[in-house]
Amino acid sequence: KWTDEEIEMLRRSVKTFSEDLNKISEHIKGRTV
């Protein structure tokens, strides 16, 4: 289960990288998106 902190990190990553899932997944290590 994702923690609130991880969800917030995902939201920030989406704002930064838009729909580039490769960059988002690099930013959030250990999780799949």
From TrEMBL:
Its main location: nucleus. It is found in: Nucleus. It comes from the Eukaryota. Residues 1-33 form the SANT domain. Pfam families: Myb_DNA-binding. GO terms for cellular component: nucleus. This is SANT domain-containing protein. It comes from Bracon brevicornis.
